[in-house]
Amino acid sequence: MKLVLTVAALDDLRSVRAYTLETWGADQEERYLRNLWCRFETIRSNPHRFRLREDLFPGCRIAAEGRHVILFRADDNIPQVVRVLHSAMDFKRHQPPESD
Length: 100
What we know:
By secondary structure, this protein is an alpha+beta fold. About 40% of the residues lie in helices and about 25% in strands.
């Protein structure tokens, strides 16, 4: 099974990378991103094990990793990572556009 990342999710990852690198250095940035990619692999292999959050958007599931929460949908068994948001953020304010 494959995994798809939206443009918004890729932008989120770039922001996470830049902030972590600037704040905690290259070693921590590498570890944190590696952990996120491991969580993506878990989502890819078994997306339906994660909690549904239909209140955010239709089909939304969430997976936590470190201080971030991965919002994704698993339509047709192909998980699509929609956003990667800091856990302190208001998830409803960062919902995907209908076209994503």
